[in-house]
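Teaching assistant here, posting this on the class forum so everyone can see the example we discussed in section. The complex has two components, and the goal was to see what a joint structure prediction looks like when all of them are supplied at once.
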Amino acid sequence: MSKPDSLQGTLDLLVLKILSRRPRLHGYAIMRAVQDMSDKVLLVEEGSLYPALHRMEEAGWIRAEWITKDTGRRARVYQLTAAGKKQLTAEESRWQAVISAVNHVLRTV
Amino acid sequence: MSFWSRMANVLRGRSLNRQIDEELQSHIAEAIEQGRDPAEARRAFGFALRLREESRDVKLIPWLDSLRADTVFGWRQLAKSKVTSMAAMLSLALGIGACTSAFRLIDALLLRPLPIAGPERLYVISRRSSAPGWKARAGEGCEYPLFRQMRAAVKGQAELIAIAGAWPADLTYGSQQEMEKARWNYVSGWMFGSFGLRPALGRLFTENDDLKPGAHPYAVLSHDYWTRRFGQDPNVIGRAFRMGSDLYTIVGVAEERFTGTEPGTVTDIFVPTMMNASVDKPQTSWFRAFALLQPGVAAGPVRDRLHATFHAYQEERAKHTVGWSKQALDGLVNMTLSLEPAATGVSSMKKNYGTSLTALGVLVALVLLIASANVANLMTAQAAARAREMALRVSIGAGRWRLVQLVLVESAWLALFASAIGGAFAWWSAPLVVSRINPPDNPARLFLPGDWRVLGFGLALALGVTLLFGLAPALRASAVQPARSRAERTRTPGAA
């Protein structure tokens, strides 16, 4: 797979991280979780969330299944796969590398 | 695995759409439940159709999906104009059928290597004389005493194998009243081993079956004869038959793919060369001498050794010949010997029909070309009638390649059906042509297997023909400009 651009990579990282802490979330819950945990700084749009979810599903990082909720409505919930866990570690270290590089630039210039 | 799931998704596009839609709907419902304004929640999603397309492209292989759509659409287009499609199909089918048929014949007679180990190392020994009046004696015939000397001369570098022509002979499995014909072939005992052939039943000859004249009355059947005459009866081993004054015992059946070294003739019965009455006659040539070179040995030095032996033999012969003119004796001695490649076998049918078959091949290729041109015209006319449809497709964003693909897929449908009909035609016609080559009581038999060579040729032909008659109309149809559609609409008011 080619190197994802930083924005897309960030969304992947957030989704993977959230699913690693709280498995079996549906799309809306993931969106809310990103907002709440970042104190409403980060907003994920539906228009980018679902293509990203479906892409990661095809890549085998997350697994989806249909469940029926207590309210009787059907929802599609996602959880991490083994490959997803590996991917999360890789994305996290990549993110740390990028952050420290940017910080380094900010401090020296 | 992901690739396969995406492949599979191409085939169930509708349920894929439903699943994506349901997930998006459940998201909106969830948002409303959590207290968001319904209109706002829907608006947040933006253009639902675009979102679905985006997710859909992730979940399947887009180009395969578009190919699938074009295949279905192309089929509908063909079904819409049935008469035109049938006419195009039939004219193509005749062209393709004739071409495949000609290829089968040319391949079987001229191109296909013998089914033996190392066919490219097989040569036939041929002799030529420059003296006048000796032309008739030139050719591939060989005398057995000379063959023995030549075999000894090149031992270790090449194996010499004697194989006579397969001639019809009368034989009987019962009383003298029940005579029947079979194609009879004298071969060296070590031929099967040198060619790397295995028995289908019983055993094949070895060197020990070919030692003393008249002492080895054994026979090996060809698989073809075993099937035709005995219905593949395994009890055929040990059965005896009488040919002339000799009583032969069947010891085995040869491999199915080996039908002799003469394309155009299928051998029925192999017997050792020692059973031929002429085996000790120094002046009678009655078989072809083949040379199978050892791997890595060059043909030149082997030929020189063979020639030296041959020359000495002919000089000896000339000494003992009385009553010949000086000129005739010179012709006898001054013959040259050469090694001709025999990877595809040697037969008189090959020599007689090689040129005419090639001419036939060129001719039917031209016929196919004409048929393709006709169909191309037909398709171009159809494409012109569809200019508005194409213009509309361009207006809503279809790329040029997409339009080319659309028309090409339609052509591929035509070529596919034409190939199927043509293949059936070739299946029937090639054996028919072969059966008409020789007189009915001695018909030519050519082994015509429908294997990967024929299949590959057919597929390549179908693909080539598709491009030949499909590419021009496709390029033309795809060259349409979106502006053209507006111009046409203004010319035909009420259509908009």
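For the discussion questions: Chain A has a mean pLDDT of 84. Strands of chain A lie at 25-26, 62-68, 74-80. Think about how each of these relates to the inputs above.
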